[in-house]
Amino acid sequence: MTKIVHYSLGLPPYRTGGLTKYVTDLATQQLQRGDDVAMLWPGRMRRRPSHPEILSHGLVSGINSFELVNPLPITLDRAVSHPELYRRGLDPSAFRSMISRLRPDVIHIHSLQGLPVEFVETARELGVTLCFTTHDMFGFYPMHGLYPLDVSLSDALVSRLETGGPGLREIRLLQSRLVRYIKSSEAIREFVRQLSRARLKASNPSERQHVQSDVVRPYSQLRDYEIELLENVDLVVYNSSVSRRAYENWHVFERSTVMNLPSMKSLDKVETSSREYRWPIRFGFVGGSRPYKGLNLLLDAFADLLESAGDTSNYSLEVYGSPNVEGEKVRPHPAYRKFSDIASDIDVLVVPSVCYESFGIVALEALDYGIPVVISDAVGAKDVISPAFGRNVIAGDKESLVEALMSFTPAVLYDMSSEIQRKYCPQSISAHASAMDELYRHLGDARQGFDGRH
Asked: What is the pLDDT of residues 252-311, one digit of tens each?
């Protein structure tokens, strides 16, 4: 039996998304294998911010749940407007007490958000094996603004991009028990979703633009802080070659490897044989309105496609989660809850992100249903999109995207979908958990050998 503590952003229904699903599925598999599994997640922020506490919330689906009170601030995918708030010194006493009591064999970190360097340093001092899996670019790249991939990001440039982020008072509210309760109630969550959609639809896009600031803030110091933290872990596990490239633009970690994420589909067999391919071809976009997801680029490319094709009835663009989207043959839809809800309504999934995206689990979900994927080379899931499964395009390059979209015909779709069904064999979460267990053991043995030599 291995004693494992995962550090992530939280458990469902409080947190959702690909990161939460991956960590929860991995922890569940580890429980089924007989491991002792706990989850530590960043929670509320109280009045003594430099003195963290760790509170037990008992068992949640068999997982020991612990709240880190007074973590560093959490912004999720919003802008970091005050980087100096994200690297303050904290008292490590609570960390030492928790680790000494639980005595984990390994601490598996899945996010740098909210995580203080003192936690990692304390765990290392106590002889715990540490590994980190990349899931986003927090601390290394802007989480919200558009940034060039081939330009060194100076503090001045990032300061212009990272405007409009929440201040400390708003972050405290978002991390409060009240907001956690709201997010944990499906009925209240749905009400908030409907309200947010209505407000977004009624608002003027120009009113939502953030005013850029001339103040230069120390983003490089936040990046150095995260690099120092990761220098204390035994292994950095990049979830894609894109993640490795993005992180290593700033620092090459001596101990690292690449391990792609597994398929997240359920154990039920996905039925794909009943698909029929005919004109019009329905391209699907599910990234929402966040700028880095590349919707504006896709809209421009799709307009060029219609102009080049002459017959506009041959194509449609189904856009999910962006109620204000407009354009010829462009059809907006509400955000979906499960990919199965939309799988029969699209023929090709388009993932045109223009900034680094560590993986993009939705691409694997599409392949599970035999749906080809057009994906930019800034998205980690490109690692599994071979020419037989879709098209790779250059991030931010409209001509590359137009060419990829134009290459699809009903016959091409039929051949490509058939090829996906025959040859796409994703790693299951069970096999992934076994591989992770082997990785933990290898790291533990290496650490014991290192400690024995010193």
From this structure: 999 999 999 998 765 444 555 567 899 999 999 999 888 899 999 999 999 999 999 988
Q: Check whether residue 64 and residue 200 sit in a common domain.
A: yes
Helix pair 117-125, 219-230: axis angle to 10 deg: 20
Q: What is the CATH classification number for the domain harbouring 54?
A: 3.40.50.2000
Residues 288 and 312 in one domain: yes
* Predicted model pTM: 0.91
Q: In a 3-state reduction of DSSP, which class is residue 320?
A: strand
275, part of any domain: no
Query: How many domains, the chain?
Result: 2
Residues spanned by the domain of 246 = 3-262+430-453
- Which DSSP category does 357 fall into? B
Residue 292, both tokens: 């880095």
Q: Which two tokens stand for residue 366?
A: 């599409």
Q: Which residue, chain included where needed, has tokens 């989480």?
A: 143
Phi then psi dihedrals of residue 400, to 5 deg: -60, -40
Q: Take residue 305 and report the two structure tokens written for it.
A: 């496609």
- Residue 316 forms beta bridges with which residues? 282
Average pLDDT of span 327-342? 94
Residue type, 306: L
Q: Which two tokens stand for residue 182?
A: 């709201």
- What span, in angstroms and rounded, lies between the C-alpha atoms of 238 and 380? 10
- Please, what is the average pLDDT of the chain? 90
Is 310 domain-assigned?
yes
